[in-house]
């Protein structure tokens, strides 16, 4: 492995591409009570796949963390503990790369780690961190095995794919029934790691009892550079609904190939954790391919003033407001809140504080934060749909900004 020790500097964190300008920007968003820091520092590890196949998502995750760190430090640091000294690690889009960085962070004396992004990386890195009783906050990783192994050090702020799949299916059934049940057949296209394979398994179990026939389930590796054969299968089967579950690059390529080959399903492209389906970058760069796509995914609360302020700040820096940004932003502030309540950078005390967290200073459409076996029980996904050049929230109705367009227009 190459030597990444230079990443572990505050200078590099604050001056790296797309991070320094944002982290140095004046903060306007409220953060946990952080005034009165005692002049010390507290080291926190931020682990993302910023190179390799998942680099874009990893860089977006770093962006969200950097904004949170910048705001906390600009306000004086964590009360009674000190300012944050961020130590960066690059998982290189692999579990082994992530594990190597956890080892370095542990040796460097971090009090906790935030990140991981991909499920297979989080599975490995949280296990490695557990050997050192090192608090680990998962930013995204959705496979439920991450939090079902009894690891006392591991906490996931967002929902797992069990909850997301259940919500996605319930919402799909409701949308389909309201439209007169036009859809009966489904094809699933998924990436073949822990995230996609686990989700495909759940969907294959849960769709038939709800009256949907799964015509075919097609796995693919990450990266994949050509979806022509997959799309030919979709055209031949002519399903009512296509359900993609992929990371960003593969999702975009699949959607573009479907558009180019005019392989539009009869009712919907209905994503579950679609890597690009709820992405402003995708909508801006490929609006025709994105049009009318639905997704059940992580999303911010559009009614929350802090969320809108953060969105404006990110877009003001020429970046896209993606779920990696606001999940890492919220996960970092969750950790800050725990360290403040622990009044210490001691790992055991931070774990205890996280386990009893009632953190409410986030920007997600969640209920109260409550961890059970490391999983936040208040975390819920949202359904979105691309309409025109906007991503609209269509469910839950409590904060919906538009009604579903379903079945989607054929032309």
Please tally the helical runs, counting DSSP H or I stretches of 4 or more residues: 14
**Any idea what the radius of gyration is?**
21 Å
pLDDT under 50 segments (min length 5)? 1-38
Give a count of the beta strands, DSSP E runs of length 2 or more: 14
Give a quick account of the main beta sheet: strands, pairing sense, barrel closure.
7 strands, mixed
- Measured as a percent range, the helix fraction is 25-40%
Average pLDDT confidence is 91
| Net shape | globular
Distance between the termini: 50 Å
Overview of this structure, please?
With about 400 residues, the protein is an alpha/beta fold. Helices cover about 40% and strands about 15% of the residues. The chain is built from 14 helices and 14 strands. The strands form three sheets. Strands 7-6-8-9-10-13-14 form a seven-stranded mixed beta sheet, with helices on both faces. Helix 5 links the parallel strand 3 (about 110-115) and strand 4 (about 135-140). The relative contact order is 0.14. Mean pLDDT is about 90; it is low at about 1-40.
